[in-house]
Write a structure and sequence with these properties.
By secondary structure, the protein is of the alpha+beta class. The chain has one domain. The chain is 49% helix and 20% strand. The protein has three helices and seven strands. The strands form two sheets. A five-stranded mixed β-sheet has the order 4-3-2-1-5. A two-stranded antiparallel sheet has the order 6-7. Helix 1 packs parallel to helix 3. It is globular. The model has no long low-confidence stretch (mean pLDDT 85).
Length: 149
């Protein structure tokens, strides 16, 4: 191998490395943009939820104790009260305006003691990517819940 061949391979290696770095930087930027979009969507959804909580309380719709479903299918008590958003009771709004996904992991301990729910970032589209047929705008689910009383 001659010196000029070594130089070319070094240059090609450097160029390839730069391309990989820029691809990685582009991918990181896309992830950052997507996360920013999700945060903005959650802020808008939280405003809708906050209004729902005010409207539900003004209408006298009493929050009920929430139950979660373990992956095994067993229903368990939780530490929260609120309003179910879906007919299958897999989503709820807590009385403090938190958004809860009510399908949770657990075993015997959770069946006996219940579960402590953790709030999730609320989406503007409920069930996005799901296949169970209950997908739609958060506003529609909130309106349905208010109308149901």
């Amino acid at each position: 191998m001659t010196a000029s061949q070594d130089e070319i391979s070094i240059e090609e290696y450097g160029q390839s490395r730069l391309e990989r770095m820029s691809r990685a930087e582009e991918a990181a930027r896309r992830v950052e943009l997507a996360a920013g979009h999700e945060r903005a969507e959650s802020r808008k959804a939280q405003q809708l939820i906050d209004q729902f909580v005010k409207d539900a309380k003004a209408a006298g719709i009493v929050p009920e104790p929430l139950k979660a479903t373990l992956y095994s299918g067993h229903k368990v008590k939780t530490d929260q009260r609120g309003w179910y958003l879906r007919k299958n009771q897999s989503l709820a709004i807590g009385e403090d305006g938190s958004y809860y996904i009510l399908t949770v992991p657990g075993g015997w301990r959770e069946r006996l003691r219940g579960v402590k729910l953790r709030a999730s970032a609320p989406p503007l589209i409920v069930g996005k990517g799901g296949r169970d047929g209950e997908t739609g705008d958060l506003t529609e689910f909130l309106r349905w819940r208010l109308e149901a009383g």
